[in-house]
TrEMBL record:
Protein name per Swiss-Prot or TrEMBL: TERF1 interacting nuclear factor 2
Taxonomic superkingdom: Eukaryota
Domain named TERF1-interacting nuclear factor 2 N-terminal: residues: 20-70
UniProt-recorded Gene Ontology molecular function terms: telomeric DNA binding
Record Pfam families: TINF2_N
Annotated PANTHER family: TERF1-INTERACTING NUCLEAR FACTOR 2 (PTHR15512:SF0)
Gene Ontology, cellular component aspect: shelterin complex
Biological processes, Gene Ontology terms: regulation of telomere maintenance via telomere lengthening; telomere capping
Amino acid sequence: MAAPPGAGPAALRFAAAATWQVVRRRCVEHFPRVLEFLKSLRAAAPGLVRYRHHERLCMGLKAKSVLLLIQ
């Protein structure tokens, strides 16, 4: 499977920086995008982040999203 056009290291850095800004600013409405990015990053580079850290981060983002829906 070929990589999509523009999916080089620069695009990955840009996506990571945008994701970090969403988390840092606590923009909960964009947390599903962050989760999608984390899943795709885990699929592309499985050894980059430990499984346990990845799952804890995903679980925390999902919990925060659910709490926002409840409020």
